[in-house]
Amino acid sequence: MSEGKMETITLQGIDLPYVRRGSGRTLLMLHGGGGPVAPMPFAATLMEHFDVVAPIHPGFAGTRIPDRFDDIHDLKFLYLDFIDALEIEDAVLMGFSMGGWAAAELAVMTTARFSRMVLVDSVGIKPGDRDTRDVADVFALHPAELLKITWHDTSKAPNVAEMDEDALAAMAGNRIALALYTFDPYMHNPKLPGLLHRIDIPTLLIWGESDGLVTPEYGAAFRDMIPGARLVVIPEAGHAPQAEQPEAFVSEILAFAS
Amino acid sequence: MKTWFFTEDAYPYLPDPDSYESIRVNLPNKHYDPDIGADLYHRYLDMWTAADEIGLEIMLNEHHQTATCVVPAAPLMLAILARETKRARLLILGNPIANRNTPVRVAEEMAMVDVLSRGRLECGFVRGVPYESAPANVIAFRGTERLWEAHDLIMKAWTHHEGPFNFEGRFYHMRQVNIWPRPYQQPHPPVWVTIGSAGSGVQVAKHKHVGAVFLAGYNGIRTIFDGYRSGYREAHGTEAPLDRLAYCALIHVGENEHRAREGAEKILWYMTSNKVAAQWNNPPGYHPPHVAAMIMKGTRGGAGVPLNPQLDDQMARGNVFAGTPDKVYEQIKAFWEYSGGFGHLLMMGQAGFLSYGDTLTSMQLFNDEVYPRLRELTESYDPDRMTYLRNSLPDVEATSLGDLGFAFVR
Question: A165, B293: Cβ pair inside 8 Å?
Answer without folding.
Answer: yes
